[in-house]
Every structure is written in C-alpha cells, then in structure tokens.
C-alpha cells in the first residue's frame, strides 16, 4: 500500500512511498517510513481491567474546556474520557455549565477555574492526565488559563482553541513539555506551523516539529496521522465520512486523555484513541447514515469489548 492512498491530494510526489503494515515497523530516528495501525497492534497495547482494580487504578483525568457558548465541547470531551475508561474524570468549565454537567454527566466531577492555579508540577497532584482546549475560546481569559497550565510544567493534551491561542502566541510554544500531545486538524495545523500546499509537505513539517519539540502530533483527517517524538508516522485506518460532524474532535481529545490517565505513553494513547474512535464510527456507520459525536463516545466500550473478544 502506498502513502498516496491515505492522502486527499490527488497528485502527490510520494505515490511510490510504501506504507508498512503493523506499528513495529514505524520509521526510526532518521527515516520517514509510514506504518499502518492494525487491530493486532491495538490488542498488544490494550491493558485489561484487572481483578481487584478500582477507580484509582485507571487514573484521574482533568479536562479544561468550554465557554458559555461552547459548553457542549466540554461535555463531549468529558464524555469521551468517561467512556474511554478513566477511573475519574474532572471537568473544569465556567460555573454557568455546572447544571448541564450534573444533569448530563453525573459521573464527572467539577473543578473551579480559579483552582487551576493550584495544579502542581511533575504530576505531584492528583491528576494523571491534563487536557486543555475544546471550546475554551480565544479571548484573554482563555489565554490566561492556558498560560497558567503551561507554567505548571506538565505534559498536556492540547486541542482546538488551545492550538488557536498558540498560533497567535507562538512565544508559548517553548513552554510545551516533551510528550505533550497536539491534536490539530488541517487548519489548526497550518495556523500553528505555517500554510502548506499539500499533505505531503504538511506531514514533513509534522515530523520535524514532533522531533524538535519531542511531542506527539495527531494530525486529524479521514485517515489521521500520529507522529511520535522520534518522528515515526502511524496511519490510523479507521473512521469514515459519517463521522464528519461537529464535536467529533472533542470526543477524541477526551479519549486520548483517558488513555494517558490509564498509564499509556503519549504515542500509545494517541494510537489507541484514534483507532477506537474511528472503529466505533465504522460500527455505527454500518447502521446509521451519519453518527453524532455523543454516539461515538457511548459506543467506545462496546467497540473495545468486541476487539478484546476477538
Ligand atoms: N457543541 C460545541 O460546543 C462545539 C464546540 N466546538 C468547539 O468550538 C471551537 C471552534 O470550533 P469551530 O468548529 O468553530 O472551528 P474549527 O474547528 O477551527 O473549524 C473552523 C473551520 O476550519 C475548517 N476545518 C475544520 N476542520 C477541517 C478539516 N479537517 N479539514 C479542512 N478544513 C477544516 C472549516 O472551514 P471550511 O472548510 O468550512 O472553510 C471550519 O469551518 C473549538 O474549540 C471546538 O472545540 C466544536 O467542536 C463544535 C461543537
Ligand atoms: N470523513 C471522515 N472520516 C474519518 N474521520 C473523520 C471524518 N471527518 C471527521 N473525522 C474525524 O472527526 C474528528 C474531527 O475533529 P475536529 O475537526 O477537531 O472536530 P470538532 O472541532 O468539531 O470537534 C477527527 O478525529 C477526524 O479524524
């Protein structure tokens, strides 16, 4: 299989560039080999729910998201995290969203925005994973929250408006810690790292930036590319156009956060989340013409169970 099969550009130089099957064959330090994620890779990464385990075993995730008009993005991320199996999920939203949170997701806890300043360095507080971005907006207040979290010197999952803020505050990029995960779609990526004429050059930049910053980049599209800290590129084959609806990325962010909370590395968390997100969408698309983001989140435990039972 060739790289061009996974790119929307009809005419790309890399037509003859081979994509290997199986994650173990990912590109090394100085190569740009592409590896296709397969179900067998996912089975190797999944951690079973162990006997005698409890909520503490599966980590505590914190998601900083939402604003008055985009509270839905926060709720969808929290839903992704909850259904992704985090032991505990806490959502930091504006207080105006509390009733919506308590009525729609009673399992999820709330953290006041003012308490974000208490997040400690080096994971010495109770959160095993921290995500910021879905629906937080791009105003000064959102910028301040992002700056504050970056100061805590923790690896973060950065999505949506957090990426938009970084595009206009590029000085903050140097505060992103190694093993952080950036989840841009095409436009967010180009705003952040410059305009690209085609996907091949966009991918090259993603590889360079992931290596330079020692981060994981989840470059979202029909086939999402996951680029790890060494610049290895993993292509996610799951997902379909029935999933092209708002809020889908918010759920993905919650899922990634759930897998980090459960102790996976940044690359593995991103690979697992993208695979299951798309696979849930594929299962639903067999029955529904289009699938909503909420439905994807709720399908995740069934999808994971099915794959484990294979
Ligand atoms: N319920 C809620 O509260 C929801 C809240 N949300 C939250 O709101 C915030 C802003 O989100 P947003 O959708 O307004 O802006 P953003 O995602 O930057 O898109 C802007 C434009 O970019 C383009 N574009 C996007 N994807 C593309 C792609 N893959 N490939 C190519 N182009 C692509 C497309 O432009 P077009 O192609 O239509 O010209 C699109 O119109 C953010 O924080 C998010 O989390 C949403 O999640 C929805 C549910
Ligand atoms: N046609 C498609 N095929 C497969 N996956 C898709 C398709 N359209 C969207 N998605 C997935 O949905 C998500 C969209 O993310 P994003 O653009 O950030 O959405 P939002 O901001 O509305 O939450 C990505 O994970 C992307 O891979």
From TrEMBL:
Q: Which UniProt keywords apply?
A: ATP-binding, Lyase, NAD, NADP, Nucleotide-binding
Molecular function as annotated in GO: ADP-dependent NAD(P)H-hydrate dehydratase activity; ATP binding; NAD(P)HX epimerase activity
Q: Which Gene3D superfamilies match?
A: 3.40.1190.20
Superkingdom of the source species: Bacteria
Please list the cofactors this protein needs: Mg(2+)
Residue positions binding (6S)-NADPHX: 73, 135, 185, 250
Where does the record place Basic and acidic residues bias? 10-27
Any one Pfam family match given in the protein's UniProt record, by short name: Carb_kinase
Q: Name one GO biological process term.
A: metabolite repair
Q: Which PROSITE patterns does the entry link to?
A: YJEF_C_2, YJEF_C_3
Disordered: annotated span: 1-27
Q: Quote the record's binding site residues for AMP.
A: 220-224, 249
Name the Enzyme Commission number(s) assigned to this protein.
4.2.1.136
Kindly give the CDD domains that the UniProt entry links to this protein: YXKO-related
The protein's annotated catalytic reaction(s) are: (6S)-NADPHX + ADP = AMP + phosphate + NADPH + H(+); (6S)-NADHX + ADP = AMP + phosphate + NADH + H(+)
- Domain YjeF C-terminal intervals: 38-307
Q: Which family does it belong to?
A: Belongs to the NnrD/CARKD family.
Q: How does it assemble?
A: Homotetramer.
Provide the function of this protein. Answer: Catalyzes the dehydration of the S-form of NAD(P)HX at the expense of ADP, which is converted to AMP. Together with NAD(P)HX epimerase, which catalyzes the epimerization of the S- and R-forms, the enzyme allows the repair of both epimers of NAD(P)HX, a damaged form of NAD(P)H that is a result of enzymatic or heat-dependent hydration.
Protein name in the entry: ADP-dependent (S)-NAD(P)H-hydrate dehydratase
Q: Which organism is it from?
A: Pedobacter metabolipauper
């Amino acid at each position: 299989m060739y790289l061009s099969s996974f790119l929307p550009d009809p005419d790309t130089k890399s037509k003859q560039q081979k994509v290997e099957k199986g994650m173990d064959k990912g590109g090394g330090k100085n190569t740009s080999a592409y590896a296709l994620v397969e179900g067998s890779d996912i089975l190797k990464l999944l951690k079973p729910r162990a006997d005698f385990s409890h909520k503490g075993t599966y980590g505590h995730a914190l998601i900083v998201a939402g604003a008055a008009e985009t509270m839905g993005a926060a709720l969808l991320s929290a839903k992704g995290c909850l259904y992704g199996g985090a032991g505990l999920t806490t959502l930091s939203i504006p207080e105006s969203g509390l009733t919506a949170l308590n009525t729609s997701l009673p399992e999820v806890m709330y953290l006041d925005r003012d308490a974000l300043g208490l997040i400690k360095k080096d994971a010495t507080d109770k959160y095993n994973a921290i995500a910021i971005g879905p629906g937080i907006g791009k105003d000064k207040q959102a910028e301040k929250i992002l700056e504050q979290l970056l100061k805590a010197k923790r690896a973060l999952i950065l999505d949506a408006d957090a990426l938009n803020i970084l595009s206009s505050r590029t000085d903050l990029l140097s505060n992103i810690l190694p093993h952080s995960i950036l989840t841009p779609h095409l436009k967010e990526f180009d705003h952040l790292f410059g305009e690209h004429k085609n996907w091949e050059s966009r991918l090259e930049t993603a590889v360079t930036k992931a290596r330079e910053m020692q981060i994981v980049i989840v470059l979202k599209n029909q086939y999402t590319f996951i680029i790890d800290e060494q610049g290895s590129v993993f292509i996610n084959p799951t997902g379909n156009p029935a999933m092209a609806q708002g809020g889908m990325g918010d759920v993905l962010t919650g899922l990634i956060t759930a897998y980090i909370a459960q102790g996976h590395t940044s690359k593995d968390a991103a690979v697992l989340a993208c695979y299951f997100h798309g696979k849930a969408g594929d299962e639903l698309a067999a029955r529904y013409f289009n699938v909503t983001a909420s439905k994807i989140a709720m399908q995740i435990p069934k999808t994971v169970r099915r794959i484990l039972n294979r």
